[in-house]
Amino acid sequence: MTSILDFLLLSFLILCAIAVAYTRDLLSAVVIFAAYSLVMALIWQMLGASDVAMTEAALGAGVTSFLFIATISKTKRTE
């Protein structure tokens, strides 16, 4: 059961990395990056590194996403 979950999480990480690279909209890229960080935090927790998982969740998904969204809101978006 664990190997299936590991495979699914790693597949999702690869999919997120490819999606961020090909996404043209910056806000969508930030949301995908936040999802990537949350899944990475889950993987760190499964590996037993709970301190790294908490840091990844707080900084990777929380603070970094907030700063990216704040920066995007200060710029003009053209459709």
Can you characterise this structure?
The chain has 79 residues and is mainly α. Helices cover 84% and strands 0% of the residues. Helix 1 runs antiparallel to helix 2 (26-46) and helix 2 (26-46) packs antiparallel against helix 3 (50-73). The chain is flat.
Could you say which overall geometry the principal axes of the C-alpha atoms support?
flat
- Describe the oligomeric state of these chains in a short phrase: single chain
Gap from first CA to last CA: 44 Å
Helical stretch count? Answer: 3
In terms of DSSP E residues, the strand content is under 5%
Biggest pleated sheet: none
Order of helices and strands: HHH
When the domains are counted, the total is 1
Low-pLDDT parts are none
Helix content: over 70%
Number of β-strand runs: 0
- What is the CA-based Rg, rounded? 14 Å
Please state the structural category.
Answer: mainly alpha
- Mean pLDDT score, rounded? 87
